[in-house]
Design the sequence.
């Protein structure tokens, strides 16, 4: 993924600063709680929600299980409709394809629709290295780009910024990129949106090349779908002469009719709307309407590695709605940056270690960035059992074992830094398998209980730094049970 | 080896556990969800469309064939529109009463030229009551996608009840995926500032929908 | 009905009062309770930390100890969810790893007869009024694995509402995780503590004397946070409330 994230510290360390940043905590709490209640209302409007969720899960699962066939079908339909299909095995190849396509048009600037896939591959940085300027046009992406910031949310990459901070970024940075912000710009959202409109309009109107991702690709028809709110997507998809869409191979659905499920579940899960303001659907090119050239770049970049994992592959069902982020108590407090990836939150914690592997410190720590509370699974519109995959990836971290990396079968070694834990787990298992030992330990703890400190030294501080330890009772339950002859004397 | 072959090869190896006798698409995908939410008469469906359009800040008007030209005239006058884009197949009667310059979208028009136009009047392909959505498919009364995008004021005429369906599944059935489609639910909006919805970004900031009976 | 109390290793060691309360409560309701002395740990901490293979012998041991009983009752939503949800998954994983059906077959007998306490009371015994008396203001925190894993729904609430003298007050943000999460509390201590503090503040805002839950692991975290933050509230396991009577009130 993007070089921006190389060398990220492990999640707990990255989260520490966020937890103690009152502004950030306030921004995230406000935003996630606002959307949580709205999502619940939007979902409650549909009394067939469980059936839609199940249909979505099954459509995606079926597609993934026959992905080769649907990829070939998609390629055929897109080509028949006048598009050109390219295949990119990794980020570098995708970036190279896009840069070459842009250069062939003779242009040195492109307008972009918000796209997770192009964020993932670090396309903007790669284009800049070739002298091509990519302008982000989604409001939140614009805020991130102008502020030289990193995205922290799938849907609203600038969720960590409040209106006052956004105004400051607009005032100080817009001028360097084009039309400056009005001098008297206030922090009302309507004025901020107006400033973005004015700033980007000149770029839309002169753009010759647009770059997008897609929410869905329909194999049988070759139709691509982009779901958005602001109209920046429509601008980028229809005004330029050349359109390049970079899309992950898992974004396929087999049939046109399948959209009836996702166009109901995605908007309600994502922005909590019955329907998002704009959805664009295009099939190849159309005479005298929209771009004359359409290129589709199909991106693997680790997806087939995830596909090879029978437990982990369900993460590829994700439709990027971000409902799991919005309900996640860990995300709410740690913020998106701590996940060290363009995919933050619960879905990021299972996607990044699959797309990138678990070799780096951050990726090995992500499966633990969850209390396994299950709120993410409950809201997921395609029923990804995120806790199940988290636990599965924890196993990969501590035990290693067979996996697929860059298409090759490998046997992973257990991650470093877990030796003490592993030894403790083994010891605990041994003790639990020998109740006599367990009992001796319990008794020892009870007998020495007056000597126990209220706080612990060393690693124990992780608990006792913020929480008192429970008092150890005078006797464990099993002793009482035995002493009272299976409790029947009633003596206490 | 081409990247195409490499990726398809990886996919096939990744799916080694999938047996050839697996259930085909038709059996693997249940469709137990509803085709329509709730029971309504056609009139009630139009009413729901109006409600949901208004809920997302589209301005809803009603007219019959006779009253339509006057309504369009009034809406354009209230807006102070001088230049109005009209698709080639738009019934001329619809804008006949308006005192405006009618601009036809021609290929040589640059986006900058369209940006100077005040308003656009179009028909639509279908409207969805449950979600408050109108869908344009580029037919001759709707024009190229850009004309309903660049001007800041969009008047869209929906023939009721004929063009109104209840639900997303019903709408997809009526639409032709080979055509470029634009689904519009209210004026452009964003939730990017503190996840709160604000209307009015890049697309038309005013969407007026006329329900024509 | 011969019922086994699966107390859990945490309760056995640290919260014997909860175990005594379950015995007292079930005995009062006419249930013949046994505490199989061979029991130790269901393996949840191992499993959820990524040591599935270490958890397997513990799961087999669990099955050996408990399979002979008609029902297995546990005062822990998360350990109950371990047996009911994750034992079958362990069996499936072993099968997918080419190790055959042996694990799945060993674990199958205990899966469907394991009940969390409030489930057992409401669904099996068919009672909501257990004849308890507890004259205190109580707020209830539904723990995650009970709520979302086992789907306990309003069972605990119905039981509490029937308790004489008990005033139940609504906990704001009740369904949000308290931040315990097993080893999460140690591995991500900062985030865990922040979640705990928010939970305690929400509980305090209710004005209740007692925060009640059906899982002592979560209560250990919430209670430890409460005393560190010097609040006046106490964490109490639901079993202790339901066991309390006018004649023998809970401490």
Sequence:
């Amino acid at each position: 993924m993007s070089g921006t994230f190389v060398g990220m510290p492990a999640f707990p360390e990255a989260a520490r600063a966020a937890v103690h940043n009152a502004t950030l905590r306030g921004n995230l709490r406000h935003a996630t709680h606002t959307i949580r209640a709205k999502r619940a209302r939007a979902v409650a409007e549909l009394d067939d929600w469980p059936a839609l969720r199940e249909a979505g899960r099954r459509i995606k699962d079926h597609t993934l299980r026959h992905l080769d066939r649907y990829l070939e079908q998609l390629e055929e339909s897109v080509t028949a409709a006048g598009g050109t299909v390219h295949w990119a095995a990794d980020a570098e190849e995708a970036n190279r394809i896009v840069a070459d396509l842009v250069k062939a048009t003779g242009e040195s600037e492109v307008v972009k629709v918000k796209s997770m896939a192009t964020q993932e591959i670090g396309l903007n940085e790669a284009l800049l290295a070739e002298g091509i300027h990519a302008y982000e046009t989604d409001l939140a992406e614009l805020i991130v780009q102008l502020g030289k910031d990193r995205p922290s949310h799938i849907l609203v990459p600038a969720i960590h910024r409040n209106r006052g901070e956004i105004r400051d970024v607009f005032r100080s940075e817009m001028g360097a990129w084009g039309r400056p912000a009005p001098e008297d710009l206030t922090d009302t959202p309507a004025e901020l949106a107006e400033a973005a409109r004015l700033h980007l309009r000149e770029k839309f109107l002169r753009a010759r090349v647009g770059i997008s991702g897609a929410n869905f690709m329909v194999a049988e028809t070759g139709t691509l779908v982009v779901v958005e709110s602001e109209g920046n997507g429509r601008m980028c998809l229809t005004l330029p002469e050349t359109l390049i869409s970079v899309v992950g191979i898992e974004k396929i659905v087999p049939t046109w009719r399948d959209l009836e499920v996702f166009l109901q579940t995605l908007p309600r899960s994502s922005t909590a709307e019955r329907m998002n303001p704009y959805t664009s659907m295009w099939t190849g090119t159309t005479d005298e309407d929209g771009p004359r050239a359409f290129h589709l770049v199909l991106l693997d970049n680790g997806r087939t590695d995830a596909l090879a994992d029978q437990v982990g592959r369900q993460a590829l069902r994700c439709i990027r709605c971000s409902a799991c982020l919005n309900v996640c108590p860990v995300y709410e407090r740690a913020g998106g940056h701590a996940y060290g990836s363009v995919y933050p939150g619960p879905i990021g914690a299972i996607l990044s270690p699959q797309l990138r592997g678990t070799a780096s410190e951050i990726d090995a720590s992500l499966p633990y960035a969850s209390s396994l509370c299950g709120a993410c699974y409950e809201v997921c519109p395609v029923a990804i059992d995120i806790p199940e995959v988290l636990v599965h990836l924890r196993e990969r971290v501590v035990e290693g074992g067979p996996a697929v990396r860059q298409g090759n079968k490998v046997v992973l070694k257990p991650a470093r830094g877990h030796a003490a834990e592993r030894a403790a787990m083994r010891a605990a298992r041994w003790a639990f398998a020998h109740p006599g030992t367990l009992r001796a330990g319990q008794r020892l703890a009870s007998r020495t209980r007056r000597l126990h400190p209220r706080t612990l030294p060393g690693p124990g501080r992780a608990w006792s730094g913020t929480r008192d330890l429970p008092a150890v009772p005078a006797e464990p339950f099993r002793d009482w049970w035995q002493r009272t002859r299976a409790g029947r004397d009633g003596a206490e | 080896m081409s990247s195409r072959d490499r990726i398809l090869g990886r996919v096939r190896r990744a799916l080694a556990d999938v047996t050839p006798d697996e259930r085909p698409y038709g059996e693997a995908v249940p469709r137990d969800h509803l085709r329509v939410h709730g029971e309504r008469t056609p009139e009630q469906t139009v009413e729901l469309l109006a409600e949901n359009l208004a809920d997302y800040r589209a301005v809803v008007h009603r007219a019959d064939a006779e009253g339509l030209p006057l309504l369009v005239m009034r809406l354009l006058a209230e807006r102070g529109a001088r230049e109005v884009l009209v698709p080639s197949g738009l019934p001329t009667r619809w804008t006949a009463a308006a005192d405006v310059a009618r601009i036809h979208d021609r290929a040589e028009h640059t986006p900058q030229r369209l940006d100077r136009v005040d308003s656009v009047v179009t028909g639509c392909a279908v409207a969805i009551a449950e979600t408050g959505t109108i869908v344009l498919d580029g037919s001759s009364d709707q024009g190229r996608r850009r004309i309903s995008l660049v001007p800041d004021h969009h008047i869209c005429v929906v023939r009721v009840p004929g063009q109104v369906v209840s639900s997303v599944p019903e709408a997809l059935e009526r639409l032709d995926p080979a055509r470029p489609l634009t689904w519009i639910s209210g004026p452009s909006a964003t939730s990017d500032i503190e996840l709160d919805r604000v209307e009015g970004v890049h697309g038309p900031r005013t969407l007026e929908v006329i329900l024509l009976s | 009905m011969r019922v086994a109390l699966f107390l859990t290793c945490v309760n056995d060691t640290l919260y014997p009062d909860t175990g005594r309360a379950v015995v007292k409560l079930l005995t009062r309701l006419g249930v013949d309770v046994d505490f199989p002395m061979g029991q130790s740990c269901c393996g949840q901490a191992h499993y959820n930390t990524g040591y599935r293979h270490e958890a397997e012998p513990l799961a087999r041991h669990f099955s050996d100890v408990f399979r002979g009983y008609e029902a297995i009752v546990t005062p822990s939503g998360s350990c109950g969810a371990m047996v009911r949800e994750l034992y079958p998954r362990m069996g499936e994983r072993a099968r997918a790893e080419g190790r055959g059906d042996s694990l799945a077959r060993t674990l199958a007998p205990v899966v469907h007869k394991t009940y969390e306490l409030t489930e057992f009371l409401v669904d099996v015994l068919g009672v909501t009024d257990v004849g308890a008396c507890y004259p205190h203001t109580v707020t209830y925190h539904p723990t995650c694995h009970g709520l979302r894993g086992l789907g306990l729904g309003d069972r605990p609430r119905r039981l509490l509402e029937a308790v004489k003298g008990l005033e139940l007050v609504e906990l704001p943000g009740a369904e949000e995780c308290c931040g315990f999460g097993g080893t999460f509390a140690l591995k991500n201590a900062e985030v865990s503590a922040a979640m705990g503090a928010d939970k305690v503040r929400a509980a305090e805002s209710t004005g209740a004397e007692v925060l009640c839950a059906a899982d002592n692991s979560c209560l250990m975290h919430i209670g430890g946070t409460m005393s560190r933050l010097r609040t006046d509230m106490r964490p109490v396991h639901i079993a202790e409330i339901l066991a309390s009577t006018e004649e023998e009130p809970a401490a």
Observations:
- Chain A has a mean pLDDT of 93.
- Chain A has two domains: 3-299, 434-483.
- Residues 434-483 of chain A form one domain.
